[in-house]
């Protein structure tokens, strides 16, 4: 399948095709919101969405979030919104307050996503589209690997997820950043270059400008694509594990008076990868908390290496061995 026609730039065609695939299947008349920063990735996405949404009978809007973190941010947000309107999108800007929890990048992301979800719900949007590219995916995987965050982090970003009840689509995860910039050039759209994207104090910037280029230079081209493939393969594995966990949990998990319990014998009988995931799944589902690998392995010992040890304090809950079961209860 191709979107190539006489005179159509290859970069524009690639971005449009990726967006069309993401939008196909949405109900006619529904609304999609493009998360627009004004950078090349989101502008190329906005242009492609304006073109494809009209063909598919969808209403398209854009939302630009002004984080207020640097001088000129209000002007940059207004300029991005104006470009969206010129493309035929219903555009709006929202100013947010960015906290400090988790560091500047995480805090800004949380504020941005909250604003996107609120705006999408306010206009009854079916989906939010973001301009994350293959390069962003590669950076995410590499950062997760460096932090030792486990398979969940190495899965990177999903093509589709849910943000506070609204579908979030990432159509460009298979598209390179160079392609989005080329698409903007071909369509005569001038992107805004966020100064924060060149700030070496941010880990992602160091990965983008130093680590990945060094890997490419030392190991050869194709590193970004290889990291993105790794993320896709791990996501497939995770989906298979999730199905196995759902089937297994029905047989070994019971509700207890103080929380929830898991059969110690059944847990011990499962392969390590599966029992670790079961423990993390139980805690996440029941107490909405995430366990580190160290915490997970301590809980596993209650099943595989039981010698009378006492309760284990975990985020949001406590695990203890009660007879032949491991009981998880809320901490008070």
SSE layout and pairings?
Blueprint: H1 10-23, E1 31-35, H2 40-56, E2 59-66, H3 73-86, E3 90-95, H4 104-122, E4 127-129, H5 134-147, H6 151-154, E5 160-163, E6 166-169, H7 177-186, H8 203-219, H9 223-252, E7 253-256, E8 259-263, H10 264-269, H11 272-287, H12 293-304, E9 312-314, E10 317-322, E11 325-330
Parallel strand pairs: 1-2, 1-4, 2-3, 4-6
Antiparallel strand pairs: 5-6, 7-8, 8-11, 9-10, 10-11
Helix pairs in contact: 1-2, 1-7, 2-7, 5-8, 5-9, 9-11, 11-12
Can you walk me through this structure?
ATP binds at residues 37-42. Pfam families: ATP_bind_3 (PF01171), TilS (PF09179). Its main location: cytoplasm. It catalyses: cytidine(34) in tRNA(Ile2) + L-lysine + ATP = lysidine(34) in tRNA(Ile2) + AMP + diphosphate + H(+). The chain has 332 residues and is of the alpha/beta class. It has 2 domains: 10-219, 3-Layer(aba) Sandwich (Rossmann fold); 257-330, Uridine Diphospho-n-acetylenolpyruvylglucosamine Reductase, domain 3 (2-Layer Sandwich), CATH 3.30.465. Helices cover 52% and strands 16% of the residues. β9 (312-314) and β10 (317-322) form a beta hairpin. α5 crosses α8 and α5 (134-147) crosses α9 (223-252). The longest helix is centred in the last third of the chain and has 30 residues, at 223-252. The protein is elongated, with a radius of gyration of 23 Å. The termini are far apart.
């Amino acid at each position: 399948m191709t979107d190539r026609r006489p005179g159509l730039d290859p970069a524009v065609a690639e971005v449009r095709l990726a967006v069309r695939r993401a939008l196909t299947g949405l109900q006619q008349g529904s609304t999609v919101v493009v998360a627009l920063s004004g950078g090349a990735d989101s502008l190329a996405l906005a242009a492609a969405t304006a073109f494809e949404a009209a063909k598919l009978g969808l209403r398209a809007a854009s939302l630009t979030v002004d984080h207020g973190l640097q001088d000129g941010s209000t002007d940059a947000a207004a300029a991005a919104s104006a470009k969206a309107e010129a493309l035929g999108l219903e555009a709006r800007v929202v100013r947010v307050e960015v906290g400090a929890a988790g560091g500047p990048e995480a805090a800004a992301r949380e504020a941005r996503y909250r604003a996107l979800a609120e705006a999408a719900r306010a206009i009854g949007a079916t989906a939010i589209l973001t301009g994350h590219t293959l390069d962003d995916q590669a950076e995410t995987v590499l950062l997760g690997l460096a932090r030792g965050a486990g398979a969940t982090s190495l899965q990177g970003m999903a093509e589709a997820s849910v943000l506070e009840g609204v579908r979030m689509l990432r159509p460009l995860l298979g598209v390179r950043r160079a392609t989005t910039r080329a698409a903007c050039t071909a369509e005569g759209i001038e992107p805004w270059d966020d100064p924060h994207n060149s700030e070496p104090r941010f880990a992602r910037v160091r990965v983008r400008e130093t680590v990945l280029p060094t890997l490419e230079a030392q190991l050869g081209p194709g590193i970004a694509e290889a990291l993105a493939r790794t993320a896709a393969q791990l996501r497939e594995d995770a989906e298979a594990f999730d199905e196995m966990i759902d089937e297994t949990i029905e047989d070994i998990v019971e509700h207890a008076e103080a929380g929830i319990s898991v059969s110690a014998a059944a847990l011990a009988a499962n392969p390590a990868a599966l029992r670790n995931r079961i423990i993390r799944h139980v805690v996440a589902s029941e107490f909405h908390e995430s366990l580190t690998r160290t915490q997970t392995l301590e809980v596993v010992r209650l099943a595989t290496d039981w010698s009378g040890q006492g309760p284990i304090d975990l985020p949001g809950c406590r695990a203890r061995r009660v007879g032949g079961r491991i009981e998880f209860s809320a901490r008070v």
